[in-house]
Amino acid sequence: MELPQKYSEQELVWLLKQRNEQAYSYLYDHYSGALFSIILSIVKEEELATDVLQEVFIKIWRQISLYDTTKGRLYTWMLNVARNTSIDAIRSKGVKNSRQNQELTENVYEQAGSAEMKTDAIGLRKLVHTLKDEWKILIELSYFEGYTQDEMAKMLNIPLGTVKTRLRSGLAALSKIIKP
Amino acid sequence: MNTQEYIESGIIETYVLGMTDAIESAELEQYCREYPDIKLAVTAFEATLEQHALLNPINPPSTIKVQLFESLKDEFVHPVFMSAPTKQSAKVFDIKPFLKYIAAASIILLVISGAMNLYLYTKLSNSSAQYQAILVEKTSLQANNQLIQAKALDLFNSMQMMTDPNMLKVSMPGMPGKEKNYATIFWDTKSKDVYILPNKLPQPTLGKQYQLWAMVDGKAVDAGMIGDCAGLCKMKNIPSATMFAVTLEKKGGSSIPTITEMYLAGKVS
User: Which of A75-89, B10-24, B43-57, B191-205 has the least mean pLDDT?
Assistant: First the structure.
């Protein structure tokens, strides 16, 4: 007998924790497009993005026992796994590149964000680019490039409190855009 | 606290997207427990984010899934292996007497040591026996646990089947004199497979077994024996029938139903 093709979130998590292959296959079919979109928007290169996607799904599979249902939805957890893995990937790639280009750049911070923004963004990142500049730069640097609020305050030479307020306002505005 | 102001500040979005620091996260999780409004706002943003992502996917190349499943294929099955207890080997020391009186002392120490060994060996044997008993208990608990998991999966599957829109449900109330008994037929109108849920049937007497019959063109056709099953029992495949009935027959079943021993019957609506 076939297992059902659609699961409730509780069933899905329960079956994944039982190491059920069909549930995992469903998870992949249902969420790979959403996660690939966020990975691709961060790492930008398709080849690297497919590597990251595989790594992300392997992490989800092996670390599902760490997912705590009381802390939030399964997608939120997977999204954070995808974002962190993507940022690690561009960081380790960036380390290689910056070693090669060390003499060319005086200020690494200045380069981050501003240069990247000219390229065509996709997915959520594209929506971020419709926001006003003071919000856009902070969301770019923090969400898509992984800088902490402290680091951004130093980079942009603005007080930490201002960074926090602006980042939150920007994300609140973003939330209104994606609300159906 | 003004929860509305807090919710609208954007802190919830910052948290869900993973950009709050440890202190901010801890504070927000605390507020979630104290203020249902805040918890609700977190859940709502999570749902919005997920919905937006699911509606705007970028599908990865189809080869990725194949590669992924290939690299994980050994992890889908996970039999439970018991590791054999490792034996500890006792260390042996050579005692080489180099002076006569030290040799004498050594012999005395050796005797004491021998006695100690005997005493410790007895203790070790006891512990080892206890350890073995615990191992056995652990194995039986594990087996029990797997049994329960299998049963839970059976029940889950049964529940999925019962709620399938293709399932035709036929109630079989008890015959006159047996009104307290009943069972339910689930008939898959696509595959024509028949399942029975023996809601309430008395334990058959020794050497007897319940048999399901399907009435096809006025004739009773054997639809299978009701065995010992959790949840739904799968019966034979019956392409068409106007009625189902259950009789008590000798173990293994009969070729024609014993009408006097008919317990349940129900028409297909």
Answer: B191-205
Optimal mutation site among A168, A174, A176, interface B, most CBs of chain B within 10 A = A168
Two tokens, residue A110: 């200045």
The more confident residue out of B67 and A109 is B67
Cα distance between residue A18 and residue A4, in whole Å: 16
What's the rounded Cα separation, in Å, for the pair B24 and B17? 13
Please name the member of B54, B59, B161 whose beta carbon is closest to the beta carbon of A36: B59
* CA–CA separation, A88 and A94 (whole Å): 10
ipTM of the predicted assembly exceeds 0.90: no
Chain A residues in contact with B78 (beta carbon < 8 A): 19
Instruction: Catalogue all structural domains in chain A, each as residue range(s) with its CATH number.
Output: 1-103 (1.10.1740.10), 105-180 (1.10.10.10)
pLDDT of residue A42: 93
Task: Quote the percentage of chain A above a pLDDT of 90.
Answer: 61
Would you tell me how many other CB atoms lie within 10 Å of the CB of residue B257? 21
Residue A173 predicted with pLDDT over 90: yes
Minimal CA separation from A131 to chain B, in Å: 15
Q: Output the six-digit token pair for A163.
A: 């960074």
Q: Are A72 and A66 in contact (CB under 8 A)?
A: no
Per CB-CB distance under 8 Å, the chain B contacts of A178 are: 48-49, 52
Split at pLDDT 50, 70, 90, the class of A9 is confident
Cβ contact, residue pair B54, A30, below 8 Å: yes
Do B71 and A54 make contact, defined as CB atoms within 8 angstroms? yes
Per DSSP, helices labelled H in B163-183 are: none
Could you identify the residue written with the tokens 């994606």?
A178
How many residues are present in chain B?
269
By the 8 A CB rule, do A35 and A56 touch?
yes
Per the prediction, chain A carries an average pLDDT of 84
In three-state secondary structure terms, B249 is strand
From A51's Cα to the closest Cα of chain B, the distance in A is: 9
Q: In what order do the strands lie in the sheet with B208-216?
A: B219-225, B208-216, B243-250, B262-267
